[in-house]
Amino acid sequence: MAIRTALTEAFGLEYPIILAPMASVAGGRLAAEVSNSGGLGLVGGGYGDPDWLREELSLARDEARRPWGVGLITWCATRETVDLALGYEPNAFMLSFGDSGPYASVIKETGCKLICQVQDVEGALAAEATGADFIVAQGTEAGGHGAEHASTLPLVPAVVDAVDATPVLAAGGIADGRGLAAALMLGAHGVLIGTRFYASIEALGHEQAKEQIVAARGSDTKRTQVFDVVRGLQWPEEYTGRALRNDFLERWDGWEKQLATALDGEDETFREAEQEGDTDIAVVWCGEAADLISDVPATTELLRRIGAEAEGCLRSGNELVGV
Fold it and tell me: What CATH number labels 6-204+294-316?
């Protein structure tokens, strides 16, 4: 049995699975591998560093044999970074955390599919109005940045009902085939998965971070602004980032204003920890689905595993309905 949805039809996918464009984690090689293995890989363009984008988008373009894409954080995107990314001819372009309106038309004019990630029904309606081809409904369980409006289970069907003319994808707390099958039953046409792909061989990031994700529980994560403060990033107030608890977070949680005034020294220590893979200080973005992650497999194996489990769940669901 093959799962067929609007997402698989739009990009010719084997699995209705998209790699979340995790900044500094979803590089060109991981994105290409996800695409070549039957999903849709998105390069995590993050804050739009042009040198990083050129290197990783070149990798994706050269290594992907099937459709692939890129994602940017909307509130810090510029026309220059959007044009730079489009220059590598991606098939999909995802915008997250902000008004996609200023860039929607230029993206769609190239024939690129526009994917908008939202955290509430109002955001979904706004994304639909800008012409989004797909809308990602992101619940609070997700790793990395998001809002605290609603969890995935109630948010996805609410967004599906609100934008019934636009296919919806589910994100947040999904790390296996059971989550994919559940999302499809909620009315989604596929899923966006981040943390599970972070713990894969091809993902960028220090091996210690991947090991931390494998060892973690969902209860070991926390939504926080601490890691944005130490990096000097002015995220809009409504967005926090879900990360693994560590010594640095425990030290500064609730003391963000004091941290902002003590950056001289703290920021350098943090940057050194990132380079060395010191996860007692450096951030490891991680969602509540950590409980479902127990290994660091190759991406191809991961796609097969999730797809097969989802198909099995969907088949077994028929047995629950009496004739």
Answer: 3.20.20.70
